[in-house]
Amino acid sequence: MADVPDIPRPSQLWKRLSAERKQQAVEAFWSDDNAAAEQAEAVTLIANRLKFRTKSVLALPTEKKVRHLVAMPAIPELVAARLLVAYHLAHQRPMMAGFLDALGIRHENGLIEEEEMPAPSPERLQEAAKTIAGSFPPDDVALYLSTLVWQDPDTWGGLAEAPQVRAAAT
Hints:
The chain has helices at 10-16, 19-31, 36-50, 54-59, 62-70, 77-91, 93-103, 122-133, 138-151, 153-156, 163-169; strands at residues 107-108, 111-112. The chain is mainly α. The chain folds into 2 domains: 10-91, no CATH class; 93-113 and 120-169, no CATH class. Helix 7 (93-103) crosses helix 8 (122-133) and helix 9 (138-151) crosses helix 11 (163-169).
């Protein structure tokens, strides 16, 4: 299932976010200890746009880096993907936990505990998507499920056909 999913790419999902959600995502992104490579790419992006040296952008307070990244007209796919992951980790843990609970996957506050996990069947994935769709706003569910598919299509690719994800594609 390593094919490219037929759903909006992370950069397209990013463009659809409200200004408030973008702000939350970028704040979480700059605090994410696991996003060093994407943060370096974002620093270069900001430096190029502002015609600053990379060192000068690195020295900016986080609030200014947040403001500049939120204002970018286009975000590279890897940065957009990491922004979405950071947003979910910081602001959507209850939904993440609910989804994993619906699948019967052991987790710690929405983070999967197992290193190797077999991909759930498309039917189980769609049932779990339906479960969280009954408890969370449709836009949040569509964004989360789409992010999962892009993050790991081998495991979560069965979600690409879920009605909750298909709604995000339109």
